[in-house]
């Protein structure tokens, strides 16, 4: 994949499922193991039951609602629901094990680096509550204390979009030659330029969809490519096949819908076509029709800054077979602009082990931007900072990534291991982090430009590298 294509990816967004089978947990306790004591009571040495102080209805159910049921519910992407008492009781051992080891709810960023929004991690008190509940026999408690059931959207988790788009017809990939890259042209038919503030991708066949990228085409190039290729869409390994005029992000395992902070927007030119590239992975062993959808929401208020993205990336590495802790690095010594950093999206494949991204300020001070100490391909994410980071002109960037290409890595896609280089296939590797930013200072009420209307976005940034930011204005 060319660097030009990489920088066109505004962000990876949405979803949690992946095209890979779940990672087995070797030390996972049996989910149905029996517990001492009766359901709803604790048996003391004397033999008389007493009511537990912690119950499912009064405490545990509220934790599950707040932290778990986004995925663990009917229609959710988790393998089982955690809604009723029976749900939780049947998986009580597994629940305690996964929360005490902090494998669930999944959040891969180190809290010692930066505070991130939407961190679902349980507090120490919540973990203790679940542990005590299980140890005391997992009592149900008083049904009258059960909180009302939590409601969830039927389709769009970020709200009903202004512009829902979908593949024109179902597509079933042919895996006879390996993974499939297919582009689908989806006209927007908009009559005016728009600012976009939310993008949600809904993969159809989650067991096959490896990732999704959203490109913009303001010409007829994509439609011409589509017309020359039989079947839905057209083959597009390595890129969409036309000169890019922008992008709206995409989706990879672990990403949630993108919702930009107030005052920020991405440009959608009138009558543009959204060209959706879908990477279908053959590794899951699943073959079924796919209809992936995209939901786009427009700005409701004036936009003050254009939301941009650029990567720090290494495409020239080679990870030797058998290496269990191989280091790959990259740096950008000097960025000729001041920026406000809002988000970061680390990305590796199946042999990825850990990744750190750091900024160096002009005076030499170091600022941690991202630290994922235990990489998991199935739980990727775009992380938005709780407080945006101000980086002055002249700052630098550095990336360090570690890989386990040994037989000891259960996720290694090759047996025996082979040397790995940059590539788009699931069995290749990548080393990249996308940074989401605006030029200049943060958006504030005082910085709003009354002449910058929602329907009049500026020309999208043409910067393909950090050096291209020299001389650019907000």
Task: Give the SSE map.
Layout: H1 3-8, E1 42-43, E2 49-50, H2 56-67, H3 85-90, H4 92-100, H5 124-135, E3 163-166, E4 180-187, E5 194-202, E6 209-217, H6 221-228, E7 234-235, E8 247-251, E9 258-259, E10 264-268, E11 273-280, E12 293-298, E13 305-306, E14 308-313, E15 318-319, E16 326-332, E17 339-347, E18 352-360, E19 366-372, E20 383-391, E21 396-403, E22 420-421, E23 432-439
Parallel strand pairs: 10-13
Antiparallel strand pairs: 1-2, 3-12, 4-7, 4-11, 5-9, 5-10, 5-12, 6-8, 6-11, 14-23, 15-22, 16-21, 17-20, 17-23, 18-19, 18-21
Helix pairs in contact: 2-5, 4-5
Summarize the structure.
With 474 residues, this protein is an alpha+beta fold.
Commentary on this structure:
This protein has 474 residues and is an alpha+beta fold. It folds into three domains: 3-16 and 156-302, Jelly Rolls, CATH 2.60.120; 53-140, no CATH class; 308-443, Jelly Rolls. 11% of the residues lie in helices and 28% in strands. The protein has helices at 3-8, 56-67, 85-90, 92-100, 124-135, 221-228; strands spanning 42-43, 49-50, 163-166, 180-187, 194-202, 209-217, 234-235, 247-251, 258-259, 264-268, 273-280, 293-298, 305-306, 308-313, 318-319, 326-332, 339-347, 352-360, 366-372, 383-391, 396-403, 420-421, 432-439. The strands form six sheets. Strands 3, 5, 9, 10, 12 and 13 form a six-stranded mixed sheet that branches. A hairpin with a 5-residue loop joins strand 18 and strand 19. The radius of gyration is 24 Å and the shape is globular. Residues 1-52 and 445-460 have low confidence and may be disordered.
């Amino acid at each position: 994949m060319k660097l030009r294509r990489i920088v066109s990816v505004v962000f990876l967004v949405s979803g949690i499922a992946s095209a890979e089978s779940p990672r087995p947990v070797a030390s996972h306790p049996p989910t149905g193991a029996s517990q001492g004591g009766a359901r709803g009571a604790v048996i003391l040495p004397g033999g008389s039951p007493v009511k537990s102080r912690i119950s499912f209805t009064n405490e545990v159910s509220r934790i599950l609602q707040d932290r778990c049921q986004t995925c663990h519910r009917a229609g959710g992407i988790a393998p089982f629901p955690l809604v009723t008492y029976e749900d939780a009781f049947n998986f009580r051992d597994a629940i305690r094990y996964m929360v005490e080891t902090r494998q669930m709810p999944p959040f891969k960023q180190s809290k010692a680096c930066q505070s991130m929004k939407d961190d679902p991690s349980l507090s120490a008190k919540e973990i203790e509550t679940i542990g005590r509940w299980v140890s005391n026999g997992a009592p149900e408690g008083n049904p009258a204390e059960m909180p009302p059931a939590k409601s969830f959207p039927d389709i769009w988790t970020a709200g009903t979009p202004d512009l829902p788009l979908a593949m024109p017809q179902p597509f079933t990939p042919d895996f006879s030659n390996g993974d499939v890259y297919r582009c689908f042209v989806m006209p927007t038919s908009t009559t005016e330029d728009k600012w976009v503030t939310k993008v949600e991708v809904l993969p159809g066949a989650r067991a096959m969809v490896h990732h999704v990228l959203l490109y913009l085409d303001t010409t007829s190039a994509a439609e011409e490519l589509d017309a020359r290729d039989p079947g839905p869409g057209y083959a597009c390994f390595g890129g969409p096949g036309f000169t890019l005029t922008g992008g709206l992000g995409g989706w990879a395992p672990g990403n949630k819908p993108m919702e930009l902070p107030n005052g920020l927007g991405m440009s959608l030119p009138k009558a543009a076509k959204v060209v959706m590239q879908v990477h279908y992975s053959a590794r899951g062993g699943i073959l079924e029709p796919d209809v992936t959808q995209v939901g786009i929401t427009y700005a409701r208020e004036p936009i003050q800054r254009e939301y941009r993205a650029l990567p720090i990336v290494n495409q020239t590495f080679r990870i030797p077979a058998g290496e269990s802790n191989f280091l790959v690095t990259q740096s950008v010594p000097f960025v000729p602009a001041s920026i406000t950093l809002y988000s970061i999206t680390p990305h590796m494949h199946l042999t990825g082990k850990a990744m750190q991204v750091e900024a160096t300020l002009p005076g030499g001070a170091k600022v941690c931007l991202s630290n994922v100490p235990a990489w998991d391909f199935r739980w990727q994410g775009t992380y938005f900072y709780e407080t945006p980071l101000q980086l002055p002109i002249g700052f630098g960037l550095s990336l360090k990534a570690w890989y386990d290409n040994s037989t000891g890595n259960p996720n290694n896609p090759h047996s025996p291991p082979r040397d790995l280089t940059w590539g788009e296939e699931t069995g290749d590797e990548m080393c990249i982090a996308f940074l989401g930013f605006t030029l200049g200072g943060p958006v504030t009420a005082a910085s709003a430009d009354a002449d910058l209307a929602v329907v009049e976005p500026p020309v999208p940034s043409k910067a393909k590298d950090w050096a291209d930011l020299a001389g650019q204005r907000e």
